[in-house]
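#struct-pred

JT: dropping the chains for the assembly here, can someone run the whole complex?
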Amino acid sequence: MDEILEITDTIYVFKDGEETAVFPTKEADLDVLYEKMVGRSTTGEFYVEDRQTVPGDDVILEVQDLSLFGAFNHVSFKLHKGEVLGLAGLDGSGNEDVCNVLVGQEAPTAGRILVNGKEMRFANAYQSRRNGILSVPKDRRDEGMVGILSIEDNINISSWNHLKKGPLLSRRLLRETADKWIREAGVKCTGRKDRIAQLSGGNAQKVIFARALESGCPVLILNHPTRGVDVGAKQEIYRLVREMTEQGHAIIVLGDTLDECLGLASSVVVFKDGMISATFDCPVGGKPSQNEVVHFMM
Amino acid sequence: MTKKKFSLSDYSQYMVVVSIVLVFGIFSVLNPNFVSAYSLQNMMVEVSPLVLLACGLSFIIFTGGIDLGSGAMVSATCVISGLYVTRFGNGIIPVMLIIGAVLGLLNGTIVTKLKIPSFIVTLCTQNLWAFIALTLCPNGSVAIDLKLRKTLKWMTAKAGGVPVIFYFAIAAVVILFIFQQLTPSGRAIFAVGANVRAARLAGLDTDKAQIMAFTVSGACSALAGALYAYKQLSAVPTIGDSLTLSAIASIALGGTSMAGGRGSVIRTAIGVVTITAITSGLNMMGVNPLWKDIIIGIILIGAVYLNSDTKGRDIIIK
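RK: done, full complex below.
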């Protein structure tokens, strides 16, 4: 940011794909820029804040001094039962790399991951799921949806091992689970045999949320859960997030916007250049303003 | 809303039913004896080992991979069964299942652990299977000892007008269908073929699913090899030479996408019947057998064309 103020003559500010302001650099200062960049906050109602849970005392996941060479350094935080922990930060600040490490996509170069107090190392996402961590990936089309399979398969894919009756999968359980989630998550479709690729972004994302909930994993990582989703579906997804915490899941969220991150989270860890630069508590009614947080991001 | 553009690939799963009716129709018009009881029984014997081979291979193709060496594996296992049946008697069948599973496991482990495309791995390992077949039988086919033939004849004998070997094939298809539909491993094989990255991030053990596909396919190929030995009553080191082509053509005819993720062993089995009907129909008409593989090749290209999603413009052909 300082660089921009130093080098430029004119500053164009973009937010959500639209130009929000033009200044000659002489007239600009950091505070004005931040305000134009993050914009007005939405109401707590939008994020279903009345259902935000107060985190319990049990630490489900703890990260100690975790480092991934070239991505982030000495990252430590605790995730409690019923907590929504927001990882805020710009692209490349290291928050996404932390998630990749937590689901076994990358091996940390230093530090420890403790699940329920036990130190773990994950070689792949299969191992992290078996130990209770599952993610809703950022790139829905390539990493979330198994496109040509049915909604039913996409919901049950992480749970096949507990939808069995004896050694075989139970068709009845598969069917009932799929129908239950289509109803509860409000997926708009003609039936559970529809291909997930035919659904709109928001409906496909609800299916992936249903998968995460059905998996029974206590720790869920939501990486940009509302990317490319229309406003109506966004709110239903927020409602699902609240449902997750009410059921005792612990959630790590990387918001699509800072507003979303603060709105959903009960505490926020801010990343800057691969390090944690600040930590905020975000109880209902006492959430930090975006301007406060943005200072620690840039 | 604009009407969805008509595309043949949406209907590719019905292709196998259409083609089997067409093939039987045409050949019975050309040759009234084509659907006689005698020739149907013959065809059942002919079809059974290929059904096993093709249904096993289907699982590798469901993952989006391929096994170019499955025919050679049939040769190797046919030779091993033919030569060692004197020692094991009918116990050779479970022995071959285990050997095949181990050979498949080897393929699968190389593919997943060394992360090498399956067509490269199987292009290489098929030479090993061919080597086994040709070193054990350097001078061509070896007939199984006459004294032993009595203990092997039950396989081609008929029970209720249907050859026993055909019951074997049916049982295998039923077991494989249950595996495909109702086991976590079977479902995972499809998920891997449909989108391996998403399947991995959903917490599936994708390596295990791929290895499982190769192992099942290996076991099926080996059983097919054993059945050929029973059928021919000899160890034939070249039996599998053109079987890879026939098997892949049957799978494609069954509407299975070569890109992976969809298909069914039942449709593969019907595809095998169609392909076999074509070859035996051509035989009965006295067509030069050299034409056989060319015709199967044309069918394969046509079937793959119909199966693949050719609507988009950004299709990448590797």
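JT: nice. Chain A is about 35% helix and 25% strand. Chain A has a mean pLDDT of 87.
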